[in-house]
Amino acid sequence: MAVGIFDSGLGGLTVLDAVAKRLPEVPLVYYGDNAHAPYGVRTADDIFDLTTRATERLFDAGCDLVILACNTASAAALRRMQEGWVPQGKRVLGVFVPLIEALTERHWGDNSPPREVGVKHVALFATPATVRSRAFQRELAFRAIGVDVEAQACGGVVDAIEEGDMILADALVRSHVDALKRKMPNPDAAVLGCTHYPLMEEVFQDALGPEVKVFSQASLVAESLADYLERRPEMRGPGTESAFLTTGNPKNVSNRATQFLRRRIEFVAA
Ligand code: DGL
């Protein structure tokens, strides 16, 4: 009954951690494509090829349902995958929709017309590829009207986190928040639209100020997955073992993952 969780690197561990807490009985197979991170500077075709390769590997590991715990892959590849690539009996879901449902105060399956919501000025922090795709704005427009979104492409942050250089990551986050504030001085909400960024959530919150509500995906995705599996229990695949797979150097990736999750994580070669 395993579920697959995919990210270009370490960021999806923020989602894995929340899912493991919410659904402790479900074996989880994680795939980090660390050898090819960051995805945020790649083309959509490249992201599609890498994401489908990883997803295939998770299907082989006994997962019928794969969560793309990567906004960049969700923005650049998911729709194309769902429209013609996902084999019958398998399912691939992204991380955008739970976040946007939370932001627009909706429950799953509420397809009523777009309406006014509480937030008016939203700052979106994401990778260059996610910002370029405008997928966030598109999903938001299906559900809300009158929301002004200012997007900030946060170049370099994923690379710094993957390298374990948290001092550089801190400095980059602060400079991206400054750049955003020059375009939108008073956002009322901020969306961390990359699963690596919850690892820097305190820095984002500190730089934005206490009056800005910061939305990050991990717990929202975990809640939405729990709800999905309740409605579709047959999507728990045949796999019985949890595992951590990486295309990078397993020793280095394990050390960084252990540091981030504050528990011993052992990656093996994908
Ligand atoms: N965690 C990925 C995301 O959510 C990072 C993408 C990247 O590798 O640039 O977008």
UniProtKB/TrEMBL annotation:
GO terms for biological process: cell wall organization; peptidoglycan biosynthetic process; regulation of cell shape. GO terms for molecular function: glutamate racemase activity. Pathway: Cell wall biogenesis; peptidoglycan biosynthesis. The keyword Cytoplasm does not apply. The keyword Cell wall biogenesis/degradation applies. Substrate binds at D7, S8, Y39, G40, N71, T72, T195, H196. The active site is at C70 (proton donor/acceptor), C194 (proton donor/acceptor). Coiled coil: none annotated. It comes from the Bacteria. It holds the Pfam family Asp_Glu_race. It catalyses: L-glutamate = D-glutamate. Its EC number is 5.1.1.3. Keywords: Cell shape, Cell wall biogenesis/degradation, Isomerase, Peptidoglycan synthesis. HAMAP family: Glu_racemase. Provides the (R)-glutamate required for cell wall biosynthesis. Belongs to the aspartate/glutamate racemases family. This is Glutamate racemase.
